[in-house]
Structure formats: structure tokens, C-alpha cells
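[Help] Beginner question about ligand-bound structures

Sorry if this is basic. My supervisor gave me a protein sequence and a SMILES string for flavin-adenine dinucleotide and asked me to "get the holo structure". I don't really know what that means in practice or what format the answer should be in. Inputs are pasted below exactly as I got them.
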Amino acid sequence: MNRENKRILVVGAGFSGAVLARELAEYGFSVKVIDKRGHVGGNAFDYVNEIGLRVHQYGPHLFHTSNMKVVDWLSRFTEWTPYQHKVKAQLRDGRLVTLPVNRETRDIVGEAHVLDIFFRPYSKKMWGIDLEELDPEILQRVPIRDDLNELYFPNDQFQALPSAGYTKTFEKILDHPNIDLQLLTTFDRRSEPDFLHVFNSMPIDEYFDYALGRLPYRSVKFHHFNLPIPRIYPVASVNFTHDEPFTRVTEWKNLPGHGSNNAFTTLTIEEPCDYADNQFERFYPVKDISGKNIELYKAYKSLTRDNMTFIGRCGMYAYLDMHQAISSALAISRAFLAQRP
Ligand SMILES: Cc1cc2nc3c(=O)[nH]c(=O)nc-3n(C[C@H](O)[C@H](O)[C@H](O)COP(=O)(O)OP(=O)(O)OC[C@H]3O[C@@H](n4cnc5c(N)ncnc54)[C@H](O)[C@@H]3O)c2cc1C
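Answer (accepted):
No worries, everyone starts somewhere. Holo just means with the ligand present. The predicted complex, written as C-alpha cells, is below.
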């Protein structure tokens, strides 16, 4: 194999692309990573704002998993700050109750009202559809508990935040002599012949010019702002139960290692919408009971040539948490390397 045909293109510097790039670079491939955005990290990108608080540009990213292989891999590039996420819901009268619904919350609102208070308005806002139209799996993501546990992820063995932030972690992952990173670079199909293989985290339907139709996504508009108040909420994330279009607010200083400011606080309010109403920023693949979106995804996948692998949330049209994106990228790189002579 000469040097030229050892070149790999990775489209997207989010978790899926960055992990693959690092694995292949360590194996000896020369890896070009491009991202159309001006930063690494994909949707996990964070930054320290003008008042010294760390903000996750695309909404709060909490790392939680029981997959210790993923933790070991990522721990090569970051120290960890332990953090167990707690979420409150604000009722219409302003009271805060624990989410997911535990015994205390259920006793406060009454069991008969749980669905109408916490699930019905949320699904309308988040997914733009009525509760009954949702994929049952999405409902299962928010269980009701019969205990007083306040943890949002009660079962995950490892819960922590990268001590210096996600962006710094990505910079370390991508810092390898065999990796050439180019930001503000959109994938151009004409470059394909220059590479032995392309690992592509762009939306699969976009790659095929929507020839079979569009895969639907929900998006979120993030409204970041500072207020001249030391602190507003007792926890990092508060979900709204009202009928206004906003689903939740994050108060960044309530996450450990996210900075301090005695006079000001930074909040991010989330407003879900269709991705077409947010500059085609695709955040959540939309599942449906009929399964037609997954069928459309599979039809696109069957068109994919051997020298291309679609990866990540938009390439695989799957709701992947960070640990799942990492685990999937590690498995894909292992399979790819196993085929090498
Ligand atoms: C609001 C929100 C909150 C979340 N919270 C959590 C959480 O708390 N915990 C958790 O584990 N996970 C969370 N996630 C999921 C997490 O963001 C994903 O697991 C992770 O971002 C997946 O990485 P990825 O590389 O697959 O995709 P992405 O992070 O989306 O990266 C894909 C990259 O590809 C680039 N790209 C796309 N098309 C092109 C193109 N044509 N040319 C060049 N570049 C292109 C994009 O710019 C992007 O940077 C959350 C996601 C969202 C949207």
C-alpha cells in the first residue's frame, strides 16, 4: 500500500468522526478530518463565555454510561469531574418537582395527572405531534419511579464531565501527527476518489441529494443570555410544563467546573422546532410508529458504495448518546481494520 491509498477522509469532527480519526491515525493511516462548522466537537462543543461561565452551545451534554471501555478510551484525553445530573420540572404554579417522576413528584401532582403534566405538552413541543403518535420507545426514555431517587440517570455506573470541557477533549483526540483537520470545510463529493475510504457523519439523505425523499429531524433553537442575578435555580436543568414553546432551561454555573461569577448567571432556554426552521440543524431523528422513516433510512443505506461508511447520528439516523457514538465509532474502526491485510 503506498502513502496515497492510505488516505482516509472523515466528514464531521463530532464524537463519531473524532474517535474514528484517532483510531485510524494511530494505526498508521493518514486521516483528513473536515467539518463544515468553525469548531470541533460537533454538538458537544462548549466554550467559556464573556462572563467566565462554560456554556455548551448545543444544549447540556451530560456524560453517563456503564460502558467502561468507552470511559477508558476517553480518559486518555481528559480528566473527569464527577457529576450526577438532577432535573426539576417547573409546574404552572412555579413549584419545582423532581424529574423523572418519582414518588414525591407523583404524590404532589397526583398519579392521574402525570401524563398530562409531564408528557403531553412536552411531546407536542419537542416532537410537534400528539402523545399517541409517538414511537413507544421515546416514551420509555422517561420512566416513572416508585422511590425518592432524584438522579436523572440512576443506573449509569459512570457519570462525570470532562474537567477542562468537551472542546479541549476533542482538541486532544484530534492532536495526532497523522490527522489533518480542516474546519469550515463542507464535504465535496468530487474529493472521494482521492481517498481509500470515507467515514461520513453528514446526513445520509443529503449525500444522496434527497433522491428518495427527506428524513425528518427535530431541531432546537438555543437562546443563551446573561442575567444580573447570582443564581436562579437549585439545579442545572429545569423543564417547563407550560404550553409555551420552550422545553427547558439550563443554568450553567450549577454544573461543576463550569466557572463562577458572583454577580451574573448564564441561562440557555431551548425552543424545539422543525429542522427546516433552524437552518437545517438536525438534532433528533424522528421515529414514528409506522417505521417509515427507518425504512427510508435503510433504502438510502442500501445505495451506499463500499468505499463509504455512514457514521454518527445523521449518517446512521439514530438517537445516539455520546457514549453510544463513541462505542459505535470504535466498533466501526475495529471492523475496518480487521479487513486490512
Ligand atoms: C440538545 C442535545 C442534547 C444532548 N445531550 C446529550 C447528553 O446529555 N448526553 C449524551 O450522551 N448525549 C447527548 N446528546 C447527543 C450527542 O450530541 C451525540 O451523541 C453526539 O453529538 C454524536 O456525535 P456525532 O459525531 O454522531 O454527531 P455530531 O456531534 O452531530 O457531529 C457531526 C458533525 O458533522 C458535521 N457535518 C455534517 N455534515 C457535514 C458536511 N456535509 N460536511 C462537513 N461536515 C459536516 C457537523 O457540522 C458536525 O460537527 C445531545 C444531543 C443534543 C442535540
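A couple of things worth pointing out: Residues 4-40+174-214+288-338 form a domain with the Rossmann fold fold (CATH 3.40.50.720). The first strand starts at residue 7 and ends at 11. Feel free to follow up in the thread.
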